[in-house]
Amino acid sequence: MTEHPRVSVVVPAYNEGDQVISVLDRLFESVRLPCEVLLVVDSADDTTVPVAEEYAQKEPRLKCLVNTYGRGPANAIQGPASRSASS
Question: How far is CA 16 from the centre of its chain?
């Protein structure tokens, strides 16, 4: 039986590339509850996407989502984050 995440962490990102790795490492080291990390970008061609996809291969709690709700951090939280597993 798969346990559903108790915590959803939303991380808005914009062209972070490799710099997002240290943030993700720290999150997954720190959060001890069953969780999911939703890395939200505004566009599929964001430089964060390939880095996140590679990271997700070793860390299944990471989901990279493209925000179609509207640009910016506030919309990243309201849009794709509303589709989190805990919803």
Answer: 12
